[in-house]
Write a structure and sequence with these properties.
CATH superfamily of the largest domain: Medium-chain alcohol dehydrogenases, catalytic domain
Radius of gyration: 21 Å
Order of helices and strands: HEHEEHEEEEHHEHEHEHEHEHEHEHE
CATH topology of the largest domain: Quinone Oxidoreductase, Chain A, domain 1
CATH class of the largest domain: Alpha Beta
């Protein structure tokens, strides 16, 4: 590993200003594409456990929009508020090259190709040319992946791994995955199949072919025919061992409870509110949702089937090594499109993502000659 002096010299080459898609005020819900600006801001300086990454690719997650607009999980504030003197850069997923490391960094060296996640409470996110990231939320990029593909793997891979771990799948088990062809669902179905499970995918009829291609043995469209839970019950496929909900909503929770065995498990990464974060709910509604989740968790331990709300958590970065290993062997999220790191292209991409019109991850490609 390089000496502290060489690290400082490496960073001195990048001192000055960088381009960033940033905010100088908190946008109202639904206005992020109109408010975000391309700005010149000071280059970040890595702290002791941080790696300074030259970002070569990123992606757009729906929660990037929710955090920026202050509607995460209905309105839970994350990160500092932007101002003209202290702009805030959104963005979580990133991939690029380590160009400097803090004195206490041990897992990454200068020059390493890396990918990972910038935590949402940080003021300096991934939508900028240089990003200082805690080494615990980075991993070495697999050699056979492009930076663009790796940038789509962080959030999708971490959430999918967390969910599949909670399901505790065994060979021969049957699991329903609701939202099977999204960024997270595309990874989850592949992990479930590799665990030996039979996957029943729930998605829109337009995505049925993709669901079969990902490994589903049965695909039911939520927008055609009868309710998918009744179809499974009428055909004798249910009761089942497990349900993974990647969409949210009480209707999905109720359907899951109807088709599960008493000793089965319902895992959700969203909760009882569909597309939570699209609109501000207010603290009263947020508290009510959490109270409902806690009641479901407690009562399910007694009455069954088990109910679990899951996510990567504060130590989720540890799973990035698993994400990297699986990605290297072909477990990848579906990618909708690639857009350049340019203001107008990003504004249009953000509008598509906010309206849930993207069919997989939208990847942001930075100028690799910079």
């Amino acid at each position: 590993m390089r000496s502290p002096d060489s690290r400082r010299n490496e960073h001195q080459k990048t001192s000055g200003s960088i381009h960033a898609l940033a905010l100088t005020r908190r946008p109202k819900p639904g206005t992020l594409p109109d408010v975000i600006q391309m700005m010149d801001i000071a280059a970040p300086v890595p702290r002791r456990r941080e790696v300074l990454v030259r970002v070569l690719a990123s992606s757009i997650n729906i929660d990037d929009i929710h955090v920026a607009e202050g509607t995460f999980y209905g309105g839970i504030p994350l990160g500092p508020g932007p101002s003209p003197t202290r702009p805030v850069t959104p963005g979580s997923d990133l991939a690029g090259t380590a160009i400097a490391v803090g004195d206490d960094v041990r897992s990454i060296r200068v020059g390493d190709p890396v990918f990972g996640v910038q935590l949402p409470f940080r003021a300096r996110g991934a939508w900028e040319e240089l990003c200082a990231v805690d080494e615990r939320w980075l991993a070495i990029k697999p050699q056979n992946l492009s930076f663009e593909t790796a940038a789509a793997c962080g959030i999708s891979g971490l959430v999918a791994h967390s969910a599949i771990d909670s399901l505790k799948l065994r060979p021969g088990m049957r699991v329903v995955i609701v939202g099977v062809t999204g960024g997270i669902g595309g990874v989850a179905v592949q992990l479930a199949v590799r665990a030996g499970a039979e996957v029943i995918g729930i998605c829109g009829s337009a995505h049925a072919e993709r669901a079969y291609g990902l490994g589903c043995s049965i695909v039911l469209a939520h927008d055609s025919g009868g309710p998918w839970d009744r179809t499974l019950l009428a055909s004798g496929v249910a009761p089942l061992n497990a349900v993974l909900d990647l969409v949210g909503g009480r209707d999905v929770e109720d359907a899951g409870q109807r088709i599960l065995r008493k000793d089965g498990v319902f895992v959700t990464v969203v909760g009882p509110e569909r597309f939570i974060g699209d609109h501000p709910l207010g603290w009263s509604a947020i508290v009510t949702i959490f109270a409902r989740v806690v009641c479901r968790i407690v009562s399910s331990r007694i009455l069954g089937p088990r109910y679990i709300l899951t996510g990567p958590g504060f130590n989720g970065g540890r799973m990035l090594a698993d994400v990297a290993h699986e990605a290297a062997t072909g477990v990848l999220p579906p990618i909708d499109s690639t857009v350049p790191f340019e203001l107008e292209a990003m504004r249009q991409a953000l509008k598509r993502a906010a309206a849930h019109r993207n069919d997989g991850r939208i990847v942001i490609q930075f100028d690799q000659a910079a």
